[in-house]
């Protein structure tokens, strides 16, 4: 993780995610909920929650890591 | 499932199962690496909160510190000892303290014993007097009943000789009220006249006992009259009690 990844940039990346993906990642990582708990609390199928997590992480990777790599190049 | 595993959103069984899968699946391991790299960035979004591992370490450290302070803290305030006051001094102090306590107990016992002795002697005297009195009362010849006269019909009394040489006790009850400048005088009466036995003042209590020292061997009768303070040579006032022997 680069030192150039500051607080505001990571926040902005998370806010940029679609709401349902940002919600899944936020509830999981910052809220400490399991994927099953998120599915139950939000009324969304478990498979859908899994997909939102995966897509959210992929987008964050693109926004943060891949961009950083290009910037460093 | 690599994304959920990286986010630690799997329950234990799911996580263990995926961990087993990762050992045999290089594709998933690569995918997990990519996701893990993103997850490692997520703490940066927090303003002041440390990462999970840092938070865990801090909580454990605080819990450990609390535990150690509770366990190793002083349970009792330690005594402030004088470095010049050694164990020999403690022994000496205890010996002196013990000796002092024993001395106090001995003195208290002696005082208590003396007090008991005095009380016992007093009680012996009382018992002796009571025994004499009981014997005298039991002996009818030693007791003279003194009924009240018409001047004091409610009064009554008895004279009890308590010793052959003449000591006597006069018991009176419900004596009449008399002026302050008067008192009662006891008389020994026979054919030759009346001889003064002694005087006594009225008492607030309805009954009282008065002791006299007089030889009643020549007495034919005993009387009590009201006389001026100090008594008279011969009866001058009202006779309030009179009894023959």
Question: What features would you describe in this structure?
Answer:
- The complex is a heterodimer of chains A (73) and B (245).
- Chain A contains four helices and no strands.
- Chain A has 73 residues and is mostly helical.
- Chain A has one domain (18-72): Arc Repressor Mutant, subunit A (Orthogonal Bundle).
- The longest helix of chain A is centred in the C-terminal third of the chain and has 27 residues, at 46-72.
- The two termini of chain A are 15 Å apart.
- The model of chain A has no long low-confidence stretch (mean pLDDT 82).
- Chain B is an alpha+beta fold.
- Mean pLDDT of chain B is 79; it is low at 73-79.
- The longest helix of chain B is centred in the middle third of the chain and has 52 residues, at 87-138.
- In chain B, helix 2 (12-24) packs across helix 3 (26-41).
- In chain B, the strands form two sheets. Chain B has a four-stranded antiparallel sheet, with helices on one face. A four-stranded antiparallel sheet of chain B has the order 5-4-7-8, with no helix packed on it.
- Chain B contains five helices and eight strands, in the order αααααββββββββ.
- Chain B is rod-shaped and about 155 Å long.
- Helix content of chain B is 44%, strand content 23%.
- In chain B, strand 4 and strand 5 (193-200) form a beta hairpin.
- Chain B folds into three domains: 2-72, no CATH class; 79-138; 141-244, Sandwich (Immunoglobulin-like).
- Chain A binds chain B through residues 1, 5-7, 9-11, 14, 25, 28-30, 33-36, 38, 50, 53-54, 56-57, 60-61, 64-65, and chain B through 1-4, 6-11, 34-35, 37-42, 44-47.
| Low-pLDDT residue spans of chain B | 73-79
Q: Characterize the biggest β-sheet of chain B.
A: 4 strands, antiparallel
- Strands side by side in the biggest sheet of chain B: 1-2-3-6
Number of domains of chain A: 1
- If you compute it from the alpha carbons, what radius of gyration of chain B comes out, rounded to the nearest whole angstrom? 54 Å
Q: What structural class do you assign from the helix and strand content of chain B?
A: alpha+beta
The gyration radius over C-alpha positions of chain A equals 13 Å
Q: How many strands, what sense, and barrel or not for the largest sheet of chain A?
A: none
The domain tally of chain B reads: 3
Low-confidence runs of chain A (pLDDT<50, min 5 residues)? none
Q: Which fold does the CATH topology of chain A refer to?
A: Arc Repressor Mutant, subunit A
Q: Tally the helices of chain B: what do you get?
A: 5
Quaternary state of this entry equals heterodimer
Residues in helix, % of chain A: over 70%
General shape of chain B:
rod-shaped
CATH architecture call of the largest domain in chain B = Sandwich
Largest interface (CB within 8 Å) is between: A-B, 26 and 22 residues
């Amino acid at each position: 993780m680069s030192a150039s990844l500051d607080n505001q940039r990571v926040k902005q990346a998370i806010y940029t995610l679609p709401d349902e993906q940002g919600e899944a990642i936020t509830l999981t990582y910052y809220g400490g909920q399991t994927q099953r708990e998120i599915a139950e609390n939000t009324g969304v199928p478990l498979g859908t929650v899994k997909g939102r997590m995966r897509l959210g992480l992929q987008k964050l990777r693109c926004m943060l890591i891949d961009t950083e790599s290009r910037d460093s190049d | 499932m690599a994304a959920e595993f990286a986010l630690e959103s799997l329950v234990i069984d799911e996580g263990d199962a995926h961990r087993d899968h990762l050992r045999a699946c290089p594709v998933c391991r690569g995918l997990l690496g990519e996701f893990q790299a993103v997850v490692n960035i997520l703490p940066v979004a927090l303003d002041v909160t440390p990462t999970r591992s840092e938070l865990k370490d801090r909580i454990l450290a605080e819990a450990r510190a609390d535990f150690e302070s509770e366990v190793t803290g002083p349970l009792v305030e330690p005594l402030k000892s004088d470095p010049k006051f050694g164990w020999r001094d403690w022994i000496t102090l205890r010996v002196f303290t013990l000796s002092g306590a024993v001395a106090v107990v001995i003195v208290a016992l002696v005082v208590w014993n003396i007090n008991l002795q005095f009380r016992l002697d007093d009680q012996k005297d009382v018992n002796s007097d009571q025994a004499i009195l009981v014997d005298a009362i039991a002996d009818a010849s030693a007791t003279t009943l003194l009924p009240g006269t018409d001047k004091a019909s409610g009064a009554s009394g008895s004279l009890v000789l308590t010793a052959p040489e003449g000591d006597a006790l006069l018991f009176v009850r419900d004596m009449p009220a008399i002026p302050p400048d008067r008192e009662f005088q006891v008389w020994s009466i026979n054919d030759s006249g009346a001889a003064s036995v002694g005087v006594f003042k009225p008492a607030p209590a309805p009954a009282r006992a008065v002791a006299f020292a007089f030889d009643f061997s020549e007495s034919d009768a005993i009387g009590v009259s009201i006389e001026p303070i100090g008594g008279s040579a011969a009866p001058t006032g009202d006779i309030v009690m009179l009894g023959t022997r």
